[in-house]
Amino acid sequence: MRICVIGLGQMGGNMALTLQAAGFDVTGSDLFDSARQRLADKGLSVVAPDELPPSDVYLLSLPTSAQVREVIETAPGLLGLAPKGSVIVDTSTSDPVVSRELAAKVEAAGLAWLDAPVSGGPKGAATGKLGMLLGGETATIERLAPMLEAMSARYTHVGGPGSGHVVKLANNYLCAAHLLTTAEAVAMAARAGVDPAACLAGLNSGSGRSAVSEVNFPEWILSGRFDSGFTTGLMRKDLRLARAAAERLDMPPGLLQAVVEAWHADPEHPADGDDFNRIAGARLAAATPAEESAS
Ligand code: NAD
């Protein structure tokens, strides 16, 4: 299976290397020479965006739907150059409305579509242990099973085109909310004299636990490392997409709006380029007595 990975950032670069190590014929491409060079130095065959080779799969890992649309539609774009029968797999966290529109165009051009947004960060991409949410046809998923198995610890087919992106936005809304609520809970315990690490150990044995309390707090927040590889800017983008989806669907008022506002309250703290866990670190530090402060 020939796979062309487009977007060689934190996620795409690691996915490309994982697929190559698993024996697939992988070529990578990125808008920026520096990103291409970084992957070439790691042994990946790379090409400029106007030199994409004929492939069975075009795997996209791009910042937003705007770049996904550009790569698919802007001349020549994948619509013009991808061989009939090839599959476009969008692993980006994209706008489901745009994904559904692009999926229809892709299918009309004789190609197949799969949205396959991922969880697990750069580490999951580098180790083939991503979680993937799939939106597309069962036949496409069966065809791509060897590739999906090489990239992920688990993949879940959640519906037709766009469904993977819908569920990804729901997931990231929960993750963003858990970062705020867990920071507040740990800070409250700290003010009452409980050590944050001990508090986390207690929470993780109870019903308030989440991936945020089990993974993010020990790995990136209490450790002070803040090097998860996922930026605040990307999480803000996901939250705005979740809010737009809720508005379009005429959802009754809930907590989503408050979470979106909290994440956008101060554009510099954390800044878009900062690790997304900083939002919890800052809240914890601000609310925790000095001698208990985690970082
Ligand atoms: P990134 O910014 O590190 O990488 C994106 C890459 O796309 C960059 O190298 C950029 O140069 C390239 N690019 C931009 N426009 C392009 C174009 N028109 N043609 C070719 N290349 C282009 O981002 P990332 O952290 O790897 O995230 C990629 C996607 O995965 C995003 O949608 C993000 O929300 C999602 N995601 C990221 C993480 C994470 O932990 N980083 C986890 C899950 C999902």
From TrEMBL:
Q: Where is the active site?
A: K168
Q: Which InterPro entries match?
A: 6-PGluconate_DH-like_C_sf, 6PGD_dom2, 6PGDH_NADP-bd, HIBADH-like_NADP-bd, HIBADH-related, NAD(P)-bd_dom_sf
Q: Name one Pfam family in it.
A: NAD_binding_11
Keyword terms, alphabetized = NAD, Oxidoreductase
Superkingdom, natural source: Bacteria
Limits of the 6-phosphogluconate dehydrogenase NADP-binding domain: 2-159
Q: Which residues form the 3-hydroxyisobutyrate dehydrogenase-like NAD-binding domain?
A: 162-277
Q: Does the keyword Flavoprotein apply?
A: no
One Gene Ontology MF term: NADP binding
Concerning Gene3D superfamilies, the annotation shows:
N-(1-d-carboxylethyl)-l-norvaline Dehydrogenase, domain 2 (1.10.1040.10), NAD(P)-binding Rossmann-like Domain (3.40.50.720)
Supply the name of the protein.
NAD(P)-dependent oxidoreductase
Q: What is the lineage of its organism?
A: Bacteria, Pseudomonadati, Pseudomonadota, Gammaproteobacteria, Oceanospirillales
